[in-house]
């Protein structure tokens, strides 16, 4: 259904060319480009392409054009390009008489060397068989040659002809001979500097390192002190003659190893001793830790100063006080122990043994102390985080509320703008790349602009864009249509809608002088569904162009800036029925 | 560039350089292979201050040619009510809304020649020139002729008064083009010109 609506624009009378052909560009879409004998009469020349009329049509004002030329022409301006009289596509008529006369014209074969002049209707057949026609060289050198010369050229003249290298058997283009030679040098034989034998260049390294009998190599006893080099074939004699010397090298090397070994053994012993000592100490101190800890806790309780994790301000002073207190406590304990030791008439070494664990006690208490302190800090921070989170949640709620109110306000402003734009509406399609992708994948093939009013009390309509085209223009063109929408004043307005709508895709190039906007004007037609009073929110049928602008141009020709496409609609309402 | 525009320009060049048009004192040549940018030249028509001058034009062919007009402007500086004395931009209806696909580069150049013969001061591009044309036509004639001699190699002896004044201003260290424009815009009054030199 859609298709018929769109195509009404260009399908008139019995002219059955589709819109695609009007946009499509190839040799067949303009007149016949041949040299005519006698030269082309002006009455058979299309004033647009200046070539011989192809599918001639005549206008009501009596001018002849190629069918596609004039369709293209009146798309941008609905007037005859010769006398500027208003001209619509339904005022064009096929000129069969001119068509016959043009095909009767005698054209010269365009092939150089062929002097044949044939009727235009036969020239295509002739060119296909013409002995003078040129075929492009298959080596891709760009030349076009006669059939008879082609083989000779391709095999023995063309700079791109393939040549086989006699050295390496590889194929290369004749013109690339120098480059190949450079590459091929690897295959050229060279003389080994040691044995004077011929070796291929790329094998030279391998030859020297493992084959050449003259290449100097190191004695296998190099590592133990025989640093001399001998030619490969002499190395056997060397080994036989110098056995004694090699043995001496070996002996001194072994002696050296033995010495190092002894040294290592010695240092290992020292290390082991040290290790034993420390394990003994650790055992003693761990015994002491348990009792010490118990004591420390009882002291805290007796002081009535239990360290609470929720304690608010654990200042450094507190900590120092605590440490001082423990120091005093430890000293007291030490004294007690010494006295008890002496009273039990124990030997003096025991005193030394108990002294060391006491220092460890002090260290441990400090650690425990610190740990408790940190626990407290963590709890306080945790508390703080909870408070902040609660605060944040309320703020998020507030922000949401504000956002809601803001969108409401924006909507009201937008509505006001849409109502007061007086038929001149700019539609900015943001995130073009993403929307285009969605359109290509078929996720969201069509976009509708907000409904805008032609005047504050006028018609309401919207622009519809298929970013990936629709119907025959799918994947090739941007399609643009206008849809009428239900408005507040439909009851008092005359129907069907009567007016003109200009759709423009705005070019956003940097330099204003380079901005070539693409614009099309369409006139309403009373008989189309698209212009009747809408019975749904938006009229099902629209009117516009399925091939408004080739998609490739949109991205390359500066229609997108900051990922945004801007489409302008300008509506003029003809207020005939009000007068 | 679309092949329609390219073939059409190619075709037009063939016609314009054929013997048929050789008597019309117009010339067009290509600037590159793409038929996008061309150079034109028209000879100042007899009976005008531009007589015998060679006026060079730059011509840009839009992608949509011939359905949209070519973009033409004067490269050679010219003193004319419908042509900007600064930029060379032209005010001519067929280069704007009155363009039709049946018009050609040849017709455009011939129309420009006609414009040199018959200015339209009521639809000006350069308001200063247009005012002079209407208020003091003989001064306009003198100025336009002097410009054509300076910039377009128009034949004939140059006006000594104009030449002296131009020399005076340039000798003060000003460039020639702004000096000549200032003098021309200020009725060749030396003091006024010096006050308004741009």
Automatic annotation (TrEMBL), chain A:
GO terms for molecular function: signaling adaptor activity; tumor necrosis factor receptor binding; ubiquitin protein ligase activity; zinc ion binding. Residues 151-236 form the TRAF-type domain. Residues 422-571 form the MATH domain. A zinc finger (TRAF-type) spans 151-236. The keyword Transmembrane does not apply. GO terms for cellular component: cell cortex; cytoplasm; cytoplasmic side of plasma membrane; glutamatergic synapse; lipid droplet; nucleus. GO terms for biological process: innate immune response; intracellular signaling cassette; lipopolysaccharide-mediated signaling pathway; protein ubiquitination; regulation of apoptotic process; regulation of canonical NF-kappaB signal transduction. The keyword Metal-binding applies. Residues 254-281, 385-419 form a coiled coil. Residues 46-84 form the RING-type domain. Keywords: Coiled coil, Cytoplasm, Lipid droplet, Metal-binding, Nucleus, Repeat, Transferase, Ubl conjugation pathway, Zinc, Zinc-finger. Pathway: Protein modification; protein ubiquitination. It comes from the Eukaryota. It catalyses: S-ubiquitinyl-[E2 ubiquitin-conjugating enzyme]-L-cysteine + [acceptor protein]-L-lysine = [E2 ubiquitin-conjugating enzyme]-L-cysteine + N(6)-ubiquitinyl-[acceptor protein]-L-lysine. Belongs to the TNF receptor-associated factor family. A subfamily. This is RING-type E3 ubiquitin transferase. The lineage of its organism: Eukaryota, Metazoa, Chordata, Tunicata, Ascidiacea. The gene is Ci-ZF(TRAF/RING)-3.
UniProtKB/TrEMBL annotation, chain B:
Pfam families: UQ_con (PF00179). Residues 4-153 form the UBC core domain. SUPFAM superfamilies: UBA-like, UBC-like. One of its GO terms (biological process) is protein polyubiquitination. Residues 157-198 form the UBA domain. The active site is at residue 91. GO terms for molecular function: ATP binding; ubiquitin conjugating enzyme activity. The keyword Nucleotide-binding applies. GO terms for cellular component: nucleus. SMART domains: UBCc. InterPro entries: UBA, UBA-like_sf, UBC, UBQ-conjugating_AS, UBQ-conjugating_enzyme/RWD. The keyword Magnesium does not apply. It comes from the Eukaryota. Keywords: ATP-binding, Nucleotide-binding, Transferase, Ubl conjugation pathway. Belongs to the ubiquitin-conjugating enzyme family. This is Ubiquitin-conjugating enzyme E2 K-like.
